[in-house]
Amino acid sequence: MDNRPIGFLDSGVGGLTVVKEMFKQLPEEEIIFIGDQARAPYGPRPAEQIREYTWQMVNFLLTQNVKMIVIACNTATAVVWKEIKEQLSIPVLGVILPGASAAIKSTQTGKIGVIGTPMTVKSDTYRDKIQRLAPEMEVESLSCPKFAPIVESNQMTSSVAKKVVYETLAPLVGKVDTLILGCTHYPLLRPIIQNVMGQSVKLIDSGAETVHDISVLLNYFEINRNRKQKEAQHHFYTTASPKGFKEIAEQWMGRKITVEHIDL
Amino acid sequence: MDNRPIGFLDSGVGGLTVVKEMFKQLPEEEIIFIGDQARAPYGPRPAEQIREYTWQMVNFLLTQNVKMIVIACNTATAVVWKEIKEQLSIPVLGVILPGASAAIKSTQTGKIGVIGTPMTVKSDTYRDKIQRLAPEMEVESLSCPKFAPIVESNQMTSSVAKKVVYETLAPLVGKVDTLILGCTHYPLLRPIIQNVMGQSVKLIDSGAETVHDISVLLNYFEINRNRKQKEAQHHFYTTASPKGFKEIAEQWMGRKITVEHIDL
């Protein structure tokens, strides 16, 4: 038993898709979330900058006495997960391996698509992880630089969103039977993505898969929170305006939260 | 990547239910299995003896250069998992936490049954783990001392087996909606158990659940076996006669294996 919170970090609001899944699967766990909205999206930034910003969030979470850190951002996972995991004494999870592993189990044709930010696609981490586990898989990666900004600006249901998703995903349609939503922002665009790709394509939400792994690791390291404790008090921080964050977060998660501003 | 084998240990043949699931879910992994058939079942033995015997198997597996150890025996897990895990530098998994965790997710009524050996039931480890994770659950434990010997003597489909299962489980019928098969031998009696408990009762195979956790931990520790390696060569050892082991093992797993005798 360990009643300390779990720390989640993301470049912006995308990591909330993982938090939403936490509320569903592990409601007893306490969460501290930080989104670096002031500097989102991370996708187009150089690796060294992503590394620096991510470490700043990690260091903030460590001051909050977290028992585990979840890098709820594919871009940051691709660039710096391994380094952070090796340097900290608490468990550190990324979102890429759980997504890659789930896609391998899901595909029937061996043709897996991955959509992500420019940095995630450029790093080729998904292809690397998938083909290490299963060299026979074919992986089609596609960079979707416009998706995360649409979510960050809360335009998920706009006609612009539909047009952008339709045009961006066109090269993948009909080519894969499984598509990894390789950015934690993308589940907020899920209905449009599913519509464009076709109902038979299995969409893998890397964030939701990650929560299952969090559950296994909480058990393995015996650091679950005791349910007899008082109700979990979650904390949300953003480097930008709490108002904008709160609006998207409450809409997406269907619950009221308090959001504080933080400078890193 | 880590191409070394995973070590499995059990008091006898029960742990093969976990190995069978490994072949299904993680066929690329190489397995070294040891069953202490000469001294099975462990269930009625005193804790100190179970501890001693289990450590003997662990030490044998360590000489085989394994990358992970799976205690594929509920009794040994209940008595000595924590100690072994704390003392080794490689990951060590037991079968109890995965089963407990799966049962909590499965139950609708909050009434969970656990069947196991006398030692597993006496240790109350399942109740302890379940109620730590979810204090609101009611747990009914039942010792089934005759089940493992039926499996070890390959009498799974006999009329004696049916009678014993029927009589033993009677106190649980109608009282739980989820039943943990809290001994890795019991999945070999699954059709009879399901029939006695009723089709609506969800049977939790702690061994099968464990394989999912193995998969997550292989990913987390980045010690998956490279699939480009030559085909996995599995090794099976028993402290008793290889003939008897081989007979049950091949029948249960539906594949030919070689079995060697080993003295501990």
SSE layout and pairings?
The structure is a homodimer of 264-residue chains.
Chain A: E1 6-10, H1 16-25, E2 31-35, H2 47-63, E3 68-71, H3 74-87, E4 92-94, H4 96-106, E5 111-116, H5 118-123, H6 125-133, E6 138-143, H7 147-152, H8 159-169, E7 178-181, H9 190-197, E8 202-205, H10 206-220, E9 235-238, H11 242-253, E10 259-261
Parallel strand pairs in A: 1-2, 1-3, 2-9, 3-4, 5-6, 5-7, 7-8, 9-10
Helix pairs in contact in A: 1-10, 2-3, 4-6, 4-10, 8-9
Quaternary state reads: homodimer
CATH architecture of the largest domain in chain A: 3-Layer(aba) Sandwich
> What is the β-strand count of chain A?
10
| Number of domains as seen in the coordinates of chain A | 2
**Span between termini of chain A:** 31 Å
| Biggest sheet character of chain A | 6 strands, parallel
Rg from alpha-carbon coordinates of chain A: 17 Å
Largest interface: A-B, 22 and 22 residues
Structural class of chain A: alpha/beta
Helix count of chain A equals 11
- The poorly predicted ranges of chain A are none
Shape of chain A: globular
Q: Can you give the mean pLDDT of chain A?
A: 93
| Residue share in β-strands of chain A | 15-25%
Spatial order of strands in the largest sheet of chain A: 4-3-1-2-9-10
The CATH class of the largest domain in chain A is Alpha Beta
